[in-house]
Specification:
Elements (H helix, E strand, L loop, with lengths): L6 E5 L11 H6 L3 E4 L1 H5 L23 H14 L4 E5 L4 E3 L3 H4 L28 E5 L13 E5 L5 H17 L4 E4 L23 H18 L5 E5 L14 E5 L11 H17 L7 E5 L9 H8 L2 H17 L3 E5 L38 E6 L2 E6 L5 E11 L5 E7 L3 E7 L5
Parallel strand pairs: 1-2, 1-11, 2-3, 3-7, 7-8, 8-9, 9-10, 10-11
Antiparallel strand pairs: 4-6, 5-6, 12-13, 13-16, 14-15, 14-16
Helix pairs in contact: 5-6
Length: 431
């Protein structure tokens, strides 16, 4: 590993609290980012007024290649460690009926596939099915009244798989991107319509979905270079059958209540899955741990979101999630909004805590401090990360003077509050 930690990643959407920085400067603060190719490098799939459907396009726009190359050059000049991954949509995408498609002002505003495409997954009545959405009307549920909706794709269809593989191969051949990201990854259950509360109601069987998922991975891996990165969003689940193909997991750590934090069992599951991924996935591993903040104002605007992310409760959770990642992985971390709220998912603040340069790890992962259960310490070239998931404060001592990044205390002995963490810098390497 040639980069220093902590490493922060961007999941689709960017930073909200650095308005004085350009968009490219904000993106370059991250060491890994996944999104649409236009978000990353201002290049889109090769669509036109003749063929406007992104899901059918298997090449990047040749007219924008030079723009993309220049933008990548600028990004890497700001952060040479930045990895860029494109999300390929395979599970759900924007759907538009033929009637609504006829009303669009611009040809590129149509759905991912044509309205009558056999690639859309249909319910028993033959209608396409909502697969994801944003609660744009603020009623705390996702339904057809919301403005931003995606509908399910039948990724068991061999022709859909062929399109997915061609897109991945095109990204690999372009030399612009380091890999791809596949969302909603599971080996345990089948996809449920988003409006159904009982997840036992599914359209495809778990067996059919798993077979299709593994087929997609196998076909992609056969068409791309060995160092082409494949990241999948498995939340807090392990995915042993996918390990021959996958370089990393995006651990989007879901929680039930947007106004509450994680419970102890959820935190332990984060540790368990992250350690599993660090041991079993293909190298070079790029595991990405994302924790969600607590939300007070469900409909809060940008200024409200920025302020809430910086309250004491969320700063504590940010430190805990960051130090969990540092003590249990060599990967990437993000602390972002709870996806339940209506604003775009994964928006986040940039924290000064993340600007610290710990260097590379020089101690193994998941080491308990002096045998204290739930208290972990890991040494790096320039300091230590300490993570405490206990419900009580814990004390740690060092054999040299260290300064706490959060506490700003310079001492041999330090206190870590309950469900918190801190970074401690060796003084000869503080800067």
């Amino acid at each position: 590993m040639d980069r220093s930690l902590p490493s922060i990643f961007q999941a689709w959407n960017s930073i909200e609290n650095l308005s004085d920085e350009s968009e490219i400067q904000q993106l370059a603060r991250h060491d890994l980012a996944f999104a649409h190719p236009y978000t990353l490098l201002k290049i889109h799939w090769d669509i036109s007024d003749i063929q406007p459907y992104s899901g059918l396009a298997t090449n990047l726009s040749s007219n924008l290649l030079s723009t993309a190359r220049q933008r990548k050059k600028e990004l890497l000049s700001l952060n040479p460690h930045l990895l860029l991954l494109v999300e390929i949509r395979y599970r759900d995408a924007k759907y538009m009926s033929a009637q609504n498609e006829g009303k669009v002002k611009n040809w590129w505003e149509v759905g991912y596939y044509p309205p009558d495409s056999p690639y859309w997954l249909k319910d028993k009545t033959g209608n396409p099915v909502i697969g994801w959405g944003e609660d744009t009307d603020g009623d705390k549920k996702i339904d057809k009244n919301d403005e931003i909706l995606n509908f399910l794709i039948d990724f068991t269809n061999p022709k859909v798989q062929e399109l997915i593989v061609k897109q991945a191969a095109s990204l690999n051949q372009s030399g612009l991107f380091n890999g791809i990201m596949l969302d909603w990854w599971s080996e345990d259950f089948a996809t449920s319509p988003i409006g159904v509360n009982d997840w036992s109601e599914t359209i495809l069987t778990p067996e059919a979905e798993l077979k299709a998922r593994l087929s997609i991975l196998r076909k992609i891996r056969a068409q791309v270079d060995d160092d082409f990165l494949i990241l999948v969003n498995s939340n807090m689940r392990q995915i042993p059958k996918s390990t021959p193909y996958v370089i990393g997991i995006f651990m989007e750590c879901y929680k039930q209540d947007y106004d509450k934090g994680y419970n102890l069992n959820q935190i332990k599951q984060m540790e368990k899955t992250l350690l599993w991924a660090e041991e079993h996935l293909r190298e070079p591993r790029i595991n990405c741990l994302e924790g969600w903040r607590t939300v007070t104002d469900y409909m809060g605007d940008g200024n409200t979101r920025i302020a809430e992310r910086n309250n004491e409760r969320n700063l504590q959770w940010m430190r805990m999630i960051t130090t969990l990642s540092l003590t249990h992985s060599d990967g990437y971390v993000l602390f972002a909004d709870d996806s339940a709220i209506p604003s775009p998912d994964h928006l986040h603040n940039w924290y000064g805590f993340w600007d610290v340069n710990l260097g590379r790890p020089i101690q193994k992962k998941a080491v308990e401090y002096k045998g204290v259960t739930g208290l972990f310490v890991r040494e790096f070239e320039k300091g230590w990360a300490v993570y405490n998931r206990n419900s009580t404060k814990q004390d740690v001592s060092f054999n040299v003077l260290v300064k706490g990044v959060s506490s700003s205390i310079l001492h041999l002995h330090h206190e870590i509050p309950a469900f918190d963490g801190d970074i401690f810098l060796k003084q000869n390497d503080e800067k």
